[in-house]
Write a structure and sequence with these properties.
single chain; 276 residues; alpha+beta; BirA Bifunctional Protein, domain 2; SH3 type barrels; 2 domains; seven-stranded mixed beta sheet; 12 strands
């Protein structure tokens, strides 16, 4: 098994800031929890917290993240951006774009993104992103972005209902976690520099979303709705065109792409008159 040591990560790393300070753990409860504690203690921007195993890893909606030791990339990055709290979603966007770009460059797999924060490979989830922030006076003090990516993970080790995949599953061979991590850090840093220069990532992020143009079912705390995913805005909100013609804007929820038969059944209902 390839070791994710600090020395291995720094050897050949081409970033200026991201990953230059490394906190490596063979096992930890959660890299996000460690990174948040370090942020509160004044850790520098770009600090990387990475582990070979998480015992309490979680994704969006507090779902447990399962990964056998040594099979995945499980890490968190600390940012200290000059951003309003309402615009923190830009960090999720740039991290998703960086992961997608690195996967495509190293493996040639057609990695895409799924709204709001999933990393997809050939229609199945290969990873996810969880962003947590601390703020004061409506400005971010810091943000921690946690990324979990199934690299050399045998999919049979996961429950079937996860509908997950891994790079190894799709390639038929293993991938260097160190090389992939180094590329991810490089591409995220490049996107972060553009963000700092005022270049907003939402347009590029939208073009990487496999979600747009699909009929989807969105599960929220208020129940489930179906419609066409039409667009996303600068803050990452999704515009969902419901079957009655209403345009619903959502910022969170569990999204499921409908199969062709499910989508056809929904279209047969026909839209109602558009709301004004």
């Amino acid at each position: 098994m390839e070791a994710l040591t600090t020395t291995a990560i720094l050897n050949g790393l081409r970033t200026h800031t991201l990953g230059r300070q490394v906190a490596y753990y063979q096992t930890t409860a959660s890299t996000n929890a460690v990174a948040k504690a370090l942020a509160a203690q004044g850790a520098v921007e770009g600090t990387l917290v990475i582990a070979d195993e998480q015992t309490a890893g979680r994704g969006r909606l507090d779902r447990r993240w399962l990964a056998p030791p040594g099979t995945s990339l499980l890490f968190s990055l600390l940012f200290r951006p000059q951003l309003a709290v309402a615009r923190a979603s830009a960090l999720t966007m740039i991290c998703g774009l960086g992961v997608r770009q690195a996967i495509r460059e190293l493996t040639a797999l057609p990695a895409q993104l799924k709204w709001p924060n999933d990393i997809m490979v050939r229609g199945r989830k290969g990873g996810g992103i969880l962003t947590e922030v601390s703020s004061s006076a409506e400005r971010l003090d810091w943000a921690v972005v946690g990324i979990g990516l199934n690299v050399n993970l045998p999919v049979a080790a996961l429950p079937a209902e996860f509908r997950a995949t891994s790079l190894q599953q799709e390639l038929g061979r293993s991938t260097s976690r160190v090389k992939l991590l180094q590329l991810i850090l490089l591409h995220i840093e490049q996107h972060y520099l553009k963000l700092q220069a005022g270049q907003w990532p939402s347009h590029e992020w939208a073009s990487a979303l496999e979600t747009l143009g699909q009929r989807v079912r969105l599960h929220t705390a208020e129940g489930a709705v179906e419609g066409l995913a039409e667009a996303v805005d600068d803050e990452g909100g999704l515009a969902l065109r419901l079957d009655d013609g209403q345009l619903l804007k959502v910022w969170a929820g569990d999204l499921v792409a409908l199969t062709s038969s499910e989508a056809a059944a929904g279209e047969e209902k026909g839209p109602g008159p558009p709301t004004r």
